[in-house]
Design brief:
By secondary structure, this protein is mainly α. The chain is built from 3 helices and 4 strands. The strands form 2 sheets. The chain has a two-stranded antiparallel sheet with strand order 1-2. It starts with a strand and ends in a 19-residue tail after the last helix.
């Protein structure tokens, strides 16, 4: 007997919360006595099946994410190759044209003047022209120090729980 009920002509499977609620209905809350052992057993099997299916779904999604991540890297590599090739060909074309404009029905190549700053020695720059990076915490070192017994104001180790599905 599967935990599926029919509503308006379509079948709906119960979620974990609904299964847990039905399990609670199988127990007399005042006495703790099991009212319907057969239904309770079926609900517990349905709950285990639901948990297994969710865990398998998580595994599949994690696998899909890894495959997409790998494909993203492949595309990023291909993008970088194409960008580098385009830049190389721009330099080649610029050398070939020697700064002179070129035009056909399909393409127009022109040149414009640009300017940029080249910093030769950062240490000689006045303070007003320096960017200061905000400090960040070295969490690995802080964790090791706290575990070794050092008290560090402004930091604490927070225990959590991580689920592993294999």
């Amino acid at each position: 007997m599967s935990m599926i009920w029919q509503t308006k002509g379509w079948m709906k499977s119960m979620n974990l919360f609904e299964i847990d609620a039905e399990i609670m209905k199988c127990v007399d809350m005042e006495t703790g006595e099991i009212i319907d052992t057969e239904r309770l057993g079926q609900l517990q099997m349905d709950r285990d099946t639901k948990i297994e299916n969710i865990a398998c779904w998580i595994k599949n999604l994690a696998s899909d994410a890894e495959a997409l991540k790998a494909q993203k890297q492949v595309f990023a590599d291909r993008q970088k190759i194409a960008e580098n090739k385009a830049e190389s060909l721009k330099q080649y074309l610029a050398t070939a044209l020697g700064g002179k404009k070129f035009s056909t029905d399909k393409v127009v190549v022109s040149f414009r003047k640009t300017s940029s700053v080249n910093v030769t020695d950062v240490s000689k720059l006045p303070e007003q022209y320096l960017k200061h990076v905000e400090p960040t915490a070295d969490k690995t070192a802080i964790k090791a120090a706290i575990k070794a017994g050092t008290v560090i104001d402004g930091a604490e180790i927070v225990e959590g729980q991580s689920i592993s599905i294999k």
